[in-house]
């Protein structure tokens, strides 16, 4: 609370309260609280539970996904998820072994989706990733860059010396060049 008054007691009065009706909030310093009639308000969100999401066989889900024009995928790079579509540019922490202009095949995907359908990795899978035979994601290394200069000041107790450490984080910029969903192989059906 701010001072001796609550936040609600400083709000402008509206409706019946503005015309001299009873206040709904008592002063913080008063001992008695005035009674206010309770007005029932219908809930804003429906309280009924909807039907659970329908699960379909893998071949049917892939067929429905392939019928859609564009797809998105949740790709994991350095154990960080990125929601990507074809043509996106993503900045990730430095990939040391990726020379400029090279093409990378990204194989760790946890979700494939389109406007109407989504395929998520199964919950019993240990890594919770989709089998890489179902999709192709390729990214081209566009640039190796650095972030802004950060000055970190380090001190020790009871010493009058301040040590300044300068740091620039290195990044790699990738452009998603290809994103496809394949047919289900015979051994996965």
What does this protein look like?
There is one protein chain. This protein is mainly beta and 189 residues long. Helices cover 5% and strands 34% of the residues. The protein has one helix and ten strands; from the N terminus they run αββββββββββ. A four-stranded antiparallel sheet has the order 2-1-5-6, covered by helices on one side. It has a four-stranded antiparallel sheet with strand order 3-10-7-4. A hairpin with a 4-residue loop joins strand 5 and strand 6 (118-120).
Percentage of helical residues? under 10%
Radius of gyration: 29 Å
Major sheet description: 4 strands, antiparallel
The termini sit apart by 62 Å
**Category from helices, strands and their pairing:** mainly beta
Query: How much beta, percentage-wise?
Result: 25-35%
- Strand/helix succession: HEEEEEEEEEE
| Low-pLDDT residue spans | 4-9, 21-34, 38-50
The average pLDDT score comes to 79
Shape: elongated
Tally the helices: what do you get? 1
Side-by-side strand order of the widest sheet: 2-1-5-6
What is the β-strand count?
A: 10
């Amino acid at each position: 609370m701010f001072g001796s008054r609550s936040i609600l007691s400083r709000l402008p009065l509206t409706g019946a309260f503005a015309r001299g009706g009873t206040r709904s909030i008592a002063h913080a310093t008063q001992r008695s609280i005035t009674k206010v009639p309770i007005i029932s308000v219908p809930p804003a969100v429906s309280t009924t539970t909807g039907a659970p999401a329908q699960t379909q066989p893998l071949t049917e889900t892939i067929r429905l996904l392939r019928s859609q024009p564009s797809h998105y995928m949740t790709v994991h790079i350095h154990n960080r998820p990125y929601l990507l579509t074809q043509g996106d540019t993503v900045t990730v922490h430095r990939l040391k072994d990726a020379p400029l202009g090279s093409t990378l095949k990204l194989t760790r995907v946890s979700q494939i989706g389109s406007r109407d359908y989504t395929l998520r990795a199964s919950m019993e899978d240990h890594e919770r990733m989709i089998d890489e035979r179902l999709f192709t994601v390729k990214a081209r290394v566009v640039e190796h860059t650095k972030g802004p200069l950060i000055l970190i000041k380090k001190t020790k107790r009871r010493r009058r010396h301040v040590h300044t450490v300068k740091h620039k984080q290195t990044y790699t910029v990738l452009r998603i060049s290809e994103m496809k969903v394949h047919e289900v192989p015979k051994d996965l059906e």
